[in-house]
Amino acid sequence: MPTHQDLSDAGPGGMPKRAALSAAGPGSMPKGARGSVESAATAAWARQAPTHPQPPLNAPYVLEGATVVLPTGPVQNGRVIIDGTQITTTAPENAPTIDVRNHWLLPGFVDIHNHGGGGASFTSGTVEDVLKGIHTHRTHGTTTLVASTVTGDMDGLVQRAGLLSELAEQGDVAGIHFEGPFISPCRKGAHSEELLRDPDPADVRRLIDAARGRAAMVTLATELPGGLDSVRLLAEHGVIAAIGHTDATYEQTVQAIDAGATVATHLFNAMPPLGHREPGPIAALLEDERITVELINDGTHLHPASLQLAFRHAGADRVAFITDAMDAAGFGDGRYWLGPLEAEVADGVARLVESGTIAGSTLTLDRAFKRAVTLDHLPVKDVVAALSANPAKLLGMYDRVGSLEPGKDADLVLLDADFDVKGVMRKGEWVVDPQLN
After folding, report:
1. Residue ranges per domain, the chain?
2. Of 58, 146, 254, 353, which has the highest C-beta tally within 10 A?
C-alpha cells in the first residue's frame, strides 16, 4: 500500500479558517451578486457570521498523515494538496503542512434529498431560513445539497421553485427536488392528501420551467394517470425521474424504468412491501441496474437487514444515502410544520401529530456514515461511495465533486478515529475549523 498519495489552503498558524455560510455565502459575495434573492434579513444574518482571513489563492498547502479515502479505497498516511478552491497534485517543497494523523479524510457528502435543517424549511422558509438550513448540514459534512420540497399547491411550488433556482444559480444548492404533489394517496406518508394530484405532464412541465434549468429530480407515483408520460418528459429535459410514494405493481414499476426512471425515492419507505406472490416495486427497483436506490440510514426508517439487502442486491455503486431531513435536523425536538401538516419530534424521530406517520428524518449524513461503518459493518469505501460519488454521478457533477481527486473542488470531511466530524471544507474554505487536539 502506498504511503503517500498526492491529491489535494495554508499551514499551521496560517491555515485558512471560515465559520460562515458557505464558500460562496452571502458574507463573501460581491455587492449585488444575490440580486432579488438577497433580503435585508439575510444580509443581517450573514453579517453576524464569524469570518476569518483567507490565504492567498496561489498558496498551496498540504493535509498530511490521514487515512484518505479514494475511489479505490482507503490510503494510510495519505496527503491531500489544496490550491485555492481545488485539489491538486503537487505543492512546493516549502508548502505549509497540516498534520492530520489519526484522522480520516473523506470527500464532502452529497445529499440529493433534503427538506431542511437547523429549524429551517426549504419548502416554506425565507431565503435566510434556507441558507441557515444549508449551513447546518454543511457543518455535518454535506458540502453539496439538493433542496427538496414537500407537497403544496401548484402556485406555491412554482413560487418556491423560483426562489430556490436563484440560490442554485449562485451555488448555494445543487438543484431542486420536487417530492410531490404527484404521488399516490395510498402511500402519501407525511404529505397532505388534499393537495395531491395526478402527474399531468403539463403540471410537471410547469415546475420544470419554474426551476429555470435547476430542477434536479421529481418524485412521482408512475402508476397514476400521466405517470409514464411525465417520466418521459423528465428524461427528455435531463431531470431525474424518481419512483416513490407509489402503490405500483412490479410490472408497472418495470414500465416506469423502461420509460426513463432512474431513482428509487427512499427505497422500502412509502411503497408496498416485498411479497413472494406480488413482489411490487421493491423487487423491480433492486434488480434493475439502471436504478439508484436512496436509503435513509437513521435506525428508524430501515431495519439493518433491509439496508444489507439493498447493498448486497443492488451493489454499492447503486446506493445513495440520503437524509430526507426536515427542519429539526441539527436543531432538536419540538413541533414543526411540513407544508400544512404539523409534526412532533421526540427523541430525534419526527411523526405527524394527527396520524403518527413518520415525517421525514432528523438525520445528518455524518451520522449516516458512522452508523453504516460502526453498526452495519459496511466497508468504508462502499459507504463513501453511497455518500459522495454515487449521488454526484446522478447529478452529473462527478467531474467536480464526489471524490478526492486532482482537479475537483476541495470539498472534504475530516473525521477522528471514532468517525466524528473534526473539520469540514468546501471549495477550499473551512466551514468547520479543524479540531486536531
Report:
1. 52-107+402-432, 109-394
2. 146
